[in-house]
Write a structure and sequence with these properties.
Length: about 300
């Protein structure tokens, strides 16, 4: 008799546990914070509500960023992740007394614009089809990579929000991969042309040099070194820096010889700067700033 009572008690406890823990409980939704792809106009969404198949819907996001839903009407979802859109729809269902504890799932079935536009200083500018988010380095490789004249400060315009963000493509592979960003379908990339500085006069290889180092910067001594240095016939002590200003060009004497020897600080150059190194007294001609600027216009541009 005592054994029978214990068996009955065990059955009651087991039934109580099952009643408190439904076997059909849905899995916990993924955290929205792990998502990066945002919903944009033209995207086709699948909206489903757990255990309510009559509310299952496939709808396209309109140009104003809203999605027309059963019972709720237009709900603005552009610029949200699918997880954030799910929470917003849940809130709307509760606020309008349709459901007490809705569990909504939003997925992007089709992107409104699947092409990503790559413009500027890449080898093959154009539109490239992608159907999911891809790292910026992958997208640039689709366009053939950067040209020798590319600036490494790349502008990305988001399709969903119109937001513009900056990505610096470092020459250091570890930094380039570590700080890479995702490009979404419909985004646009613009790779600008790097600033160019000029070494003219009595240097080994007169011409223009793009500022394409890892910081998009260059000094006077660095540029002259790229230009092959100064031969014995040159007068680096009488060098001049010609710089564009709002009023035209200004001419600044610089002691390039002392800079090369480390006696005085080097000068940080700006885009379109010209460093002119005169020839020796016997070879030197009277050259003014206007003539130097004119010669820069026809100078060869060298990649490095």
């Amino acid at each position: 008799m005592k054994l029978l009572k214990l068996q009955i008690l065990a059955l009651i406890l087991t039934a109580t546990c099952f009643a408190q823990t439904p076997a059909t409980a849905p899995p916990a939704p993924a955290l929205a914070s792990t998502e990066s792809l945002l919903i944009g106009p033209g995207d086709m969404l699948h909206v489903s509500v757990f255990d309510t198949p009559e509310m299952d819907q496939h709808a396209r996001v309109t140009d104003d960023g809203s999605v027309p839903l059963i019972f709720l009407g237009n709900v603005h979802v552009a610029g949200l992740t699918p997880g954030q859109a799910s929470k917003m729809i849940e809130t709307e269902l509760v606020a309008k007394d349709y459901m007490k504890h809705p569990q909504v799932t939003v997925t992007i079935e089709q992107y409104g614009t699947q092409g990503v536009l790559v413009m500027g200083q890449v080898k093959n500018p154009g539109s490239y089809q992608i159907d999911t988010s891809r790292p910026v380095l992958d997208v640039l490789s689709l366009a053939g990579g950067l040209t020798d004249l590319a600036d490494r400060q790349i502008t990305i315009e988001r399709h969903a929000t119109g937001e513009r963000i900056q990505y610096f493509m470092s020459n250091n592979p570890e930094e380039a991969f570590d700080h890479s960003v995702l490009i979404h379908p419909g985004d646009k990339l613009l790779v600008p042309k790097a600033g160019i500085v000029y070494a003219l006069g009595d240097v080994g290889r007169p011409g223009g040099y793009p500022m394409t180092d890892n910081r998009s910067k260059m000094t006077a001594v660095q540029m002259v070194a790229l230009a092959g240095g100064t031969p014995p016939t040159a007068r680096p002590a009488a060098a001049r820096l010609i710089r564009r200003t709002a009023d035209g060009y200004t001419e600044i004497p610089i002691q390039l010889s002392d800079m090369q020897k480390g006696k005085i600080a080097d000068i940080q150059l700006q885009a379109d700067d010209i460093v002119y190194v005169p020839f020796s007294y016997l070879k030197n001609l009277a050259v003014n700033a206007a003539g130097i600027v004119a010669s820069a216009g026809s100078a060869a541009i060298y990649a490095h």
